[in-house]
Amino acid sequence: MTTQDVCVVVPTIRNHEFLRAYAENAREHGFDLDRLFVVLVTEDFCDTGTMEAMLDEEGLDGAVFDESDREAWFDEHGIAAYEHLIPAASHAQTSFGLLYLWAHDRFEYGVFLDDDTAPHDDVDFFGTHLDNLAYEGDLTAVESDEQWVNVLHETEDLYPRGYPYSAMDEDRTVSTERVENVVASQGLWTNVPDLDAVRILMDGDLQGQAQTRTTRADFGEDFVAGRGNYLTVCSMNLAFRREVVPAFYQFPMDDNPWDVGRFDDIWSGLLLKRAADVLGGRIYNGAPLCEHNKAPRSTFGDLANEVAGLELNEHVWKLVDRAGADADSYAGVARAVAAELRTGADDEWENADFLTYCGEYLDDWLDCLAELDADATRRATAVIAE
């Protein structure tokens, strides 16, 4: 009997139909769809019935959670006090998918997908991600004198969303390292690159995309970032192991008093990279590529969402980098980073108090996971008693 060990998390309010292409890709490449459970995270104004019908038609087991369903799920698991961890109307609602995964120990892996992506037909999308997570062997390693690795380093002068401006024009060193204990697999993107609004404006596009487009030729060998080096982690095409969930909270963007947005996956990636470095894990980058078909929207709208956090993004990785060196678990690193965020910000940084807020939420995240563990123990004990 097939073990259902992969939880696929999809935030969507626009285009749940994109999942059909991923299901077809799995069938074409012989990947067993019975391994997948899909968590669609949506809103009360969306047609959840149509989403559920789509899952049935594609032979995908799964569940749809709008805001009301999420509230009921929190109540059912005795964690209603932590509903605030999932921000309203934000891509960071992917954190709910992480909670769902954590609550069901059959899931060994998670996959994040965005609804404006599509797999390349000639590549086994899910199989490649899982192969990456199992990879042991030599792999290209990239590092720089700025402690940052540009995941688009083989393109011409493109820097992805979240890459600090102060770390640009870095001098890279490329070598080969023995790689094992891969804890996350980041697939990159053809067509529309994942850029921030400032860089999109500089590229001459007012519709939130980019004049410059990427093709397969822009991506060479798969790689890891050297230890002690950071990189942008984008959640549109990402697989990860269950063990990293405590250090992978998608930070509470958009729905906050400072209107900071667009850095949820970027800052969670910093936390994940720090924890992986401390604990001997690696983040695999490159394949499987997906096609990023970002819909046109105002670049200035994206800029308005990003500007409140731009200065913080120049500094937050340095706070993360000095926390958790002696930790022995992903939760331990996350707890140390939370303490640093609560106390380490410079008051002169724009919206510095938001980092304190993020530290408090990260502490709550860890407490919430502990409560979910306790709830699972209670349920198991009740079953045995029956």
Please specify the SSE layout and strand pairing.
Blueprint (H helix, E strand, L loop, with lengths): L5 E6 L7 H10 L7 E6 L6 H10 L3 E5 L1 H10 L17 H10 L5 E5 L3 E3 L5 H9 L3 E8 L3 E2 L22 E8 L2 E10 L5 H6 L20 E3 L4 E2 L5 E5 L22 H16 L2 E11 L6 H8 L3 H12 L8 H14 L9 H33 L1
Helix pairs in contact: 7-9, 7-10, 10-11
Give a quick summary of the entry:
The chain is α/β, with parallel strands linked by helices and 386 residues long.
Keywords:
single chain; 386 residues; alpha/beta; 8-stranded mixed β-sheet; 3-stranded mixed β-sheet; 11 helices; 36% helix; globular; golgi apparatus
Helical stretch tally: 11
Give the overall average pLDDT.
96
Overall helicity: 25-40%
Indicate the overall shape.
globular
Descriptive overview:
The protein has one domain. The model has no long low-confidence stretch (mean pLDDT 96). The longest helix has 33 residues, at 353-385. Helix 7 packs parallel to helix 9 (310-321), helix 7 (264-279) packs across helix 10 (330-343) and helix 10 runs antiparallel to helix 11. Helix 2 (48-57) links the parallel strand 2 and strand 3. It has helices at residues 19-28, 48-57, 67-76, 94-103, 125-133, 197-202, 264-279, 299-306, 310-321, 330-343, 353-385; strands spanning 6-11, 36-41, 61-65, 109-113, 117-119, 137-144, 148-149, 172-179, 182-191, 223-225, 230-231, 237-241, 282-292. The chain is globular, with a radius of gyration of 20 Å. The chain has 386 residues and is an alpha/beta fold. The protein has an eight-stranded mixed beta sheet, sandwiched between helices. Strands 8-6-10 form a three-stranded mixed beta sheet, with no helix packed on it.
